Amino acid sequence: MAPTAALELRLAEFIVRDAPTVSDAEVRQASRHVADLVGVAIAGTRLNAFHRLAEIVAVQPRQDQLSARIWGTNKRIPLREAGFINGFSGHILDFDDDETGYSIAHVTVTAATAAMVVADACSKVSGAEVIKAYVIGSETAMRLGEIINPGHFRSGWHASATLGCFAACAAAGRILGLSPEQMRHGFGMCASFASGMRANFGTETKALQVGKAVRDGIFAAELAKAGLTSADGALFGEQGFAFMFQQGRDVSHIIEGFGKPYRLFGNTMIIKAYPCCTASHTAIYSMLILRADNDFSAGDVVSITCSIDAVAKGLLKYDTPTNAAEAKFSMHYSLAIAALRGSAGLAEFALEGAPGEEILSLMEKIAVEVVSDLPNLPSGASVASTLNIELKDGRSLKRFQEFVPGSMEEPMSVNALEKKFIECVHPAPRKAASELFVRLMNSGSISPFSSCITSFQMGYLPLN
Description:
The protein is α+β, with helices and mostly antiparallel strands. It is 50% helix and 8% strand. It has a four-stranded mixed sheet with strand order 6-5-7-8. A hairpin with a 6-residue loop joins β1 (67-69) and β2 (76-78). α4 packs antiparallel against α10 (205-225) and α18 (414-425) crosses α19 (430-440). The longest helix is centred in the N-terminal third of the chain and has 22 residues, at 127-148.
């Protein structure tokens, strides 16, 4: 076997057989991310884009097909399409968690969605198996991300979609019982399937790319299990996926470090406090703190200057957004709405059309500058920011924030996470929402996991 094929097989062996044990504490931490994803996915089912997609995707499965439910409903559709639409609803609000150091991607929405929909199709799968598959899928994305980034991301690829395909394949393939050789072939297929561009940020296609990654990852696992093959070296070979994006990395060392420790539990994972691009979160946090501590209103502002990293500026490309999707990738809008309302939740980013005159007027007072001295993550980029505010009464306010709220360095409390969950699943009754939240926070003890998915309806049926 060629050296690159041996590396590919070694990665596959970790995924299906040799991955280190996930500790009880790690299972509890992973369950936080699963609970968070379910909440934001159910919130995503309220959007018109979800219903338009469902009309196309929600076809009746054949009797001999594996099927899974569309979350928020009891409607079953073919397994791959369930992955597609649940992945889409989990990402359409850009409120799902984010990993900023290695994959530079939203890893839970692909890995955990794949694990949960396959568990729904294979009804005897336990919550413990779902959590292990999710952790391994996310680790796959982060290890591959370490190999190909930052070159991959900075070239304009949407890593949540490209690496997400591998994450979904790993999670799905583990639950489906693939052999190491089958998993290797599945990854070779993912090398061809993986796609997605950052050029589509600020549109619904961003979430479509993520949903497609879940679909294609599950599809690759199904094909590999059925005996279809891919080429040796499709992942790590001279013309393979990794080689095309980044060269010179010690791939063997990175792969042998799989799960030692699991990077899902490091300080690069973020449970989002705000439903918008992570690159704006430290600045939003500073705005909210300065506003609360210094008792000023939007009308008191003379100017706002925000200093951020060049990578962050490239993501926040809409200085004057024209709709809700663009507003999520606008530092100008995010700071203006936080200054105006003192909050930055779902309601603040639920635009219908362009922002109003009051927000636009405040946005004109905001300047965003790129600086090079902010502390970097392993990716070489920074999520830190410095905010300067000049007020009409002569006060000058300044605040630096290094860590994103919701990260390990600025963790979200259980109460705050439950509050976010309840907001996301509204109008479900609060008691039912809280009960589901508690159950998901203990995902590792649910058996079978499919019994929990029944509770995702909570009296809210978005589809006929």
